[in-house]
Write a structure and sequence with these properties.
single chain, elongated, mainly alpha, 0% strand, 125 residues
């Protein structure tokens, strides 16, 4: 019994959970870091931080001037910040959930491409 339980492939032991990726995504870019997508994490952290920073800046400008254009910009920036956060969360879960599928298809497509090239070569007729 123990042998059967331990005979799983090593890839299944290193599999990551979409649920844990979603929990990590509470932090900006956390899910991308969990999925080891560091460049994507940096981009999303930067975009979310800029949107929040601009929302705070426009909010303080609105408080001091009572100009409605600052209020409109504050709201737009807050919505963009929320959009980036929701996008990052969905991206974490989908990327993590589809990772085994991507690995399988990339290996299969390489084999299929080599077979197709062999079939397309002229026979010399």
């Amino acid at each position: 019994m123990f042998t059967l339980a331990c005979s799983q492939e090593s890839d299944s032991l290193n599999a990551k959970s979409p649920k844990i990726a979603a929990l990590w995504s509470i932090l900006p870019g956390g899910g991308q870091i969990y999925n080891r997508k560091y460049v994507k994490a940096g981009i999303l952290i930067t975009l979310e931080a800029l949107a929040i920073q601009q929302a705070i800046k426009n909010g303080s400008n609105y408080k001091s001037t009572k100009d409605d254009s600052y209020l409109t910009r504050r709201n737009e920036n807050a919505w963009w910040g929320l959009f980036f956060h929701v996008y990052a969360t969905l991206d974490d879960v989908v990327d993590n959930d589809l990772k085994p599928f991507k690995e399988e298809t990339s290996e299969e497509s390489f084999e299929d491409d080599s077979k197709m090239k062999e079939e397309e070569e002229p026979d010399g007729e």
